[in-house]
Design goal:
The chain has about 750 residues and is an alpha+beta fold. About 40% of the residues lie in helices and about 10% in strands. The protein folds into five domains: about 1-150, no CATH class; about 160-245, Sandwich (Immunoglobulin-like); about 250-280 and about 505-585, no CATH class; about 340-495, no CATH class; about 590-740, no CATH class. Helix 7 packs antiparallel against helix 17.
């Protein structure tokens, strides 16, 4: 009898199921019994595809496609149900250990593969929180069972080099049409294979595109441009799907094309069949250009003083001005978070250091120094930050890991911080990339004087040992490398670097166009592709060819017909917020708005202890106290200032503009523009014209004149109508036309 029982496979299955149930219900601490199973080989072998299932290239992608290693399941930081996989299979060797060795080896049953817990759970033969994700006879089940039958070995037949998706871009001919997707993997041995069945497809917007994972098809259910992400193993590839907005083809052949910007933008607009808004009139274009390049309102010029706006001459003059230097120094100061501070960790940026860094940037822009040279000097800086501005870069954040996040966001447009704890789930960055760069920054002091510290180190969370210096996405540096920042700067500013030039031209594009080609601008990754990738590539290449010259790229954008379009939509392009069929209306920056209000009112602002008459754009320290700038929503440079602004504007700003001292105490102030005009006995309508010209760079139109003429009586002295005139000035300074660049 005993002999019969011991050889009865059915009874053995029952016993194993009872054991599994006990482990599932009571956890591993009560599962101290063991079952005799053959020894599982963990040797990495290289056999042909027909001989063995490839753990890394077959099973890991299968787990990813099924969602097993996603953040909401076993790929979370602590795993789920005492089973933890690396996020999206970023560390296959660790996953192998978890499946084969952990849990006392009970997840694998070589004697009876179908009784393996790693199969019974997803097949929901036993309770599974994620439900049934495989069926007993489907391809996934067969692959998993075959692997176990082969001995559950860690087989790695070849290294994945890249994947190709076909098509990676297509235009739908009609709504609801299904498009088949195909993914082909290419390996280091020269072989290729179709891995569509092991690829996960995820629509960026599931309300616009539906995915049939079984058939590997995508169906567009809403017009526009949409992205589907294909993920196989460690490779993530975006697929662009376009469905025209209109059924009517739009003829754009007569639209002006000033440079490559217009060719790329109009090509995308034509595919979407979007109509375009007309060009701006000269006064409005003059206002836009002047605000964008200098942060100032233009001086009003009567139509009789100029026949036609010579845009190139205007752009050249503005780019050569000191006002340009002041404004773009402010932009770079925000990007580099320049402000004085003393924090709890005693990492300080003194007011002197903040001003030194600000002044250094101003000098670089004044001298036309290339952005690559600026970046190199900043990254390799050492010395007293109070005397040498670039050293202040290393006091903006509190520690070396934050320095890695800060540096990659600024100079690469990449959010690498996820790779601090695990391989980045949406990008190529690994923990070795993150901690390898952090190892460089760990060799610096973090005080007023930045010094090289050869004893500094960064402990890698996986190994518990000092991380080796490493170029992101590249090689580890030789162990005898002292200061790796020079090597990093060489790599970063090399003309073939895929991030550096694109990151800054994308920011320059946003500065003039209101939205980055990649948005957010500090989130470059394959899963967040540019709206116009070819244009981004051309802008970056042109930037490099012209010596990383910020002025040059700004001029290219400002001279395009795309930049000169009206912000008023026409029928058919009202919903466009990404393709530039019309210009975006965008809030004027707080510092620019504060200065504009002072200019129009004729009443200077006061900022901390700065000299009277100092403009907000000129402030050399982001921490200088200013209630005005705080009311207008200035950025706290403790963190990134690159968040997308609310399309409706900050509520606090609106309330202060509506009924706060920000304007009310200055509109009628003695010595201000309105006070002087009233005392000079100008008529109300002449005062109206004066404020229109100063604030909006135009005369009131016929409709506005008719309305305002009913409010004011030119036969009565302006002094008797002061209250009404103050209300009028308030309305001009709070109107959308004034507080936006449109």
């Amino acid at each position: 009898m005993a002999h019969d029982v011991c050889n009865n496979s059915e009874i053995m299955k029952i016993r194993f199921a009872i054991l599994v149930a006990a482990c599932t219900c009571f956890g591993t601490s009560l599962c101290v019994m063991s079952m005799d199973t053959p020894t599982i080989s963990t040797e990495v072998t290289r056999q042909t595809r027909n001989e063995a299932v490839d753990f890394k290239n077959d099973l890991i992608p299968m787990f990813t496609k099924l969602g097993c290693n996603a953040g909401k399941c076993h790929g979370s930081a602590i795993g789920r149900g005492e089973f933890k996989l690396s996020l999206y299979g970023g560390t296959p060797s660790a996953d192998y250990d978890e499946i084969v060795r952990r849990f006392a080896g009970r997840r694998i049953n070589l004697t009876d593969p179908e009784s393996s817990l790693v199969f019974m759970k997803p097949a929901e033969s036993v309770e599974h929180g994620g439900g049934a994700v495989i069926k007993h006879n489907d391809d996934n089940a067969k692959l998993l069972i075959t692997w176990i039958r082969q001995g559950a070995k860690y087989v790695e037949n070849r290294q994945l080099k890249r994947v190709e998706v076909n098509p990676n871009r297509f235009i739908a001919t009609k709504m609801g049409e299904k498009h088949p997707l195909k993914v082909v993997a290419q390996y280091d041995d020269g072989s290729t294979r179709d891995v569509t069945n092991l690829t996960q497809f995820v629509a960026d917007d599931s309300s616009a595109v539906t995915i049939d994972s079984k058939l590997a098809t995508a169906k567009i259910i809403r017009p526009g441009r949409h992205i589907v992400i294909a993920r196989y193993s460690t490779e993530v590839v975006p697929i662009e799907l376009i469905s025209p907005i209109s059924e009517t083809v739009v003829d754009l052949s007569s639209e002006q094309r000033n440079n490559f910007v217009d060719h790329e933008i109009l090509a995308a607009i034509a595919e979407l069949r979007l109509p375009v808004s007309p060009m701006l009139d000269d006064p409005s274009l003059m206002r836009r250009i002047t605000l964008d390049l200098t942060g100032r309102l233009p001086e009003y010029r009567r139509e009789t003083e100029v026949d036609r706006l010579n845009r190139e001459a205007v752009v050249d003059d503005l780019l050569a001005s000191e006002e340009f230097v002041e404004f773009y120094t402010l932009k770079l100061a925000k990007l580099l978070r320049i402000q004085s501070k003393i924090d709890k960790n005693l990492v300080t940026t003194t007011p002197t250091a903040a001003r030194a860094f600000h002044d250094w940037f101003a000098q670089q822009l004044h001298d036309g120094v290339g952005y690559d040279q600026m970046a190199r000097e900043i990254i390799t800086a050492t010395g007293d930050s109070a005397e040498y501005g670039p050293a202040t870069f290393y006091t903006a954040v509190e520690d070396a890991r934050l320095q890695t996040e800060f540096t990659t966001e600024v100079f690469m447009g990449s959010r690498m911080k996820c790779a601090n704890c695990h391989n980045h789930p949406l990008d190529k960055w690994t923990q070795d990339d993150f901690h390898g760069l952090t190892a460089m920054f760990s060799k610096l002091t973090r005080s007023q004087v930045i010094r090289f510290n050869p004893l500094g180190k960064n402990i890698h969370p996986n190994t518990g040992e000092a991380a080796l210096m490493k170029i992101p996405g590249g090689d580890f540096l030789p162990k005898d490398t002292k200061d790796g920042r020079g090597v990093f700067a060489d790599w970063l500013t090399d003309r073939n670097n895929p991030y550096f030039a694109k990151a800054i031209v994308n920011r320059l594009w946003k500065s003039l166009m209101g939205r980055g080609l990649v948005e957010p601008v500090d989130d470059f990754r394959s899963t967040n592709p540019a709206t116009h990738p070819a244009l981004l590539n051309q802008l970056a290449e042109d930037f490099i060819e012209h010596g990383y010259d910020i002025r040059h790229t700004l001029k290219v954008i400002a001279m395009s017909s795309t930049y000169a379009r009206s912000s008023i939509p026409v029928k058919g392009n009202e919903g466009d917020n990404r393709f530039y069929s019309h210009m975006m209306q965008r809030p004027v920056e707080p510092e620019v708005l504060a200065d504009a209000m002072s200019d129009v009112l004729g009443v200077a602002g006061q900022y901390g202890t700065e000299a009277p008459g100092t403009r907000a754009v000129e402030l050399r320290d982001g921490a200088i106290r200013s209630d005005t700038l705080d009311m207008l929503g200035r950025c706290d440079r403790t963190n990134s200032c690159e968040g997308a602004p609310s399309p409706t504007g900050p509520l606090a700003q609106k309330l202060h503009l509506f009924n706060g001292k920000l304007l009310n105490s200055r509109i009628g102030a003695e010595g201000g523009r309105l006070d002087k005009l009233i005392k000079s006995k100008e008529t109300p309508m002449k005062i109206v014209n004066e404020f229109y010209q100063a604030a909006l760079n135009r005369q009131p139109n016929t409709k506005e004149v008719a309305f305002l003429a009913k409010l004011f009586d030119d036969q009565k002295p302006s002094a008797e109508q002061r209250d009404a005139l103050e209300d009028f000035v308030w309305s001009v300074l709070t109107c959308k036309e004034f507080v936006t660049n449109h």
